[in-house]
């Protein structure tokens, strides 16, 4: 099995960790029950995110 690697800056790595932690907190508090969740997930799947 080939493992692909990428190189990013430490600041980008830290931002990704923070974003992941934030999403985990939001999901734990029920944001996935928010009325716009399905629209947001559709945008994400279509590559329309930030």
Description:
This protein is mainly alpha-helical. The protein contains 2 helices and no strands. It has helices at 10-28, 37-45. The longest helix has 19 residues, at 10-28. The termini are far apart.
Topology:
Elements: H1 10-28, H2 37-45
Can you describe this structure in just a few lines?
The chain has 50 residues and is an all-alpha fold. It is built from two helices and no strands.
What are the defining features of this structure?
about 0% strand, about 50 residues, mainly alpha
Segments where pLDDT lies below 50 for 5+ residues?
none
How much of the residues is beta strand, in percent? under 5%
Mean pLDDT comes to 91
Class computed from helices, strands and strand pairing: mainly alpha
- What is the 3D shape? extended
Tell me the radius of gyration. 14 Å
| Range of helix content | 55-70%
Instruction: Measure the end-to-end span.
Output: 32 Å
Q: Total number of β-strand segments? A: 0
- Summarize the biggest pleated sheet: none
Q: Element order, helices and strands? A: HH
- Quickly count the helices: 2
